[in-house]
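Chapter review: from sequence to fold.
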Amino acid sequence: MKNIVFLLSLLIVNLFCAQESLEKFEQNGKIGLKYQNKIVLPPVYDMISTNILIITSKANEKNIYDQKLSLLYKNTDFLTTYYSEDFDILQIILKDGSMKNYTWDGILNDYSKFIPKKESTESYRESRDRGSKTYIIEKKVIKEELNNILSNPEDELIHVKYIINGKDAVFLNNEKKLEIEYTQKRKGNFNDKIIDYGYSEEFLFRPLKIEYIISKQGSNYGVWDFKERKMILPFEYKRIISYQNYLNLEKNGLYTYYPNIGTEPKYKKLEPYIGYFARFETPDGKKGWVNRKGKEYFDQ
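The token string follows.
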């Protein structure tokens, strides 16, 4: 009888339901779903997510439904999911090693825009409410060439020689020049003193810092902080490639991502992130996905 009631509820949803009309409710410490005050999923779940698709969790079992509550993936089909607010995309890693990406419009086949680029596409556009700082590397010197953010009088422009014996230095945008735009915030309507810079293109490089430079010593690469004047990564890597907010480190034919995975390369192959996940292969031939916090999901 319970199964019949549940199937009827699913039929009602398939005919009329739009996901934005679904409403979660709690009963006896469990979560269910309602549509137009009718129960379409009973309150027996520990968690229900309604971001793009519907994901239910009960004990160790998870299931994924579409917007009309048709079952898409059983607990035995997938390893993990991740919803990104930045991209408004739900990513699903299946146990066979494939990835599915969904937006509100349905499954996404072209996800090239979720793969980070090796250089910044942002550029400074001058306006009354904006300012910028421009750093350049010239003859082994890091200079703050331009600063029009109305800095405090005690601020000094940067003009330092980079690491001893270092050469071929580049910023995190893989260039000799780095221009950062800021939106100026003001203290109040009657006082136009600038108290902070508000929005900044610096977020493109987080969790790295814009003052990091990649430099070479001998045949090896490392990373140096030119404001703190200290090494961040030693000169022991064959290659360091910047993807703005993370670095691809290569040593002894192996790869890692810093800071997401760590400083010691361990993967035979490591592809750029697609949203939250990167595809990898270990030296012994095992394949899978690793997320931006370093957690691995091996193909099964």
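Two observations follow directly from the output. The chain is about 5% helix and 50% strand. The longest strand covers residues 130-138.
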